[in-house]
């Protein structure tokens, strides 16, 4: 799919599609009227999950639902709008249990974990960038409302609360993108980290002179031994999330 930014389509058409407005109905009559926008979105999500975002084309979706590629455009004007519908559908399906803990740190940990689960289940989402005018669909609004509620009682003003949520989700996005890239490197090379290091150890032993790079060799060796690789996703998640929450604590617990 060319273009991987949400909110890049025709705004009025996108919003009408997201909210089921009557104006978003098929723009011309023709065969295949039994197909719905929801079916197209479901097929697009399946394609993205199975083959990656680049596999999502109007032609591929049409083949999945049994209609012509041109008829798909009568429901969704283009790929940009389709991407908005895909992302919003995933947001809408996210679990939103009531916040019961009195600890803001526990609540924000749950927010982070829910977003991590979403991004790990749908790795292509880490490739999607949000523009400054996100498509305000029902999924995004429900997600935003729920996650903002996790900040209730923290004493932050509205603007700071929004910034604090963006900060937290930014960490999750960056971590999951790194985890996705690491997993893809293993898949593409058909070699685990341990196997890669073992295969390249003779060359590395000659190249990485501890006299020239004393800190890099010492610290790198200690980290690699502790983690079993140069980077370990779960360890990086625990460390990064704790530091992110510590940063927010400087605002929330400053008194």
UniProtKB/TrEMBL annotation:
Gene3D superfamilies: Homeodomain-like, Tetracycline Repressor, domain 2. SUPFAM superfamilies: Homeodomain-like, Tetracyclin repressor-like, C-terminal domain. Pfam families: TetR_C_1, TetR_N. InterPro entries: Homeodomain-like_sf, HTH-type_TetR-like_transc_reg, HTH_TetR, Repressor_TetR_C, Tet_transcr_reg_TetR-rel_C_sf. GO terms for molecular function: DNA-binding transcription factor activity; transcription cis-regulatory region binding. Keywords: DNA-binding, Transcription, Transcription regulation. It comes from the Bacteria. Residues 34-94 form the HTH tetR-type domain. GO terms for biological process: negative regulation of DNA-templated transcription. Transmembrane segments: none annotated. Residues 57-76 bind DNA. This is AcrR family transcriptional regulator. It comes from Nocardioides aromaticivorans.
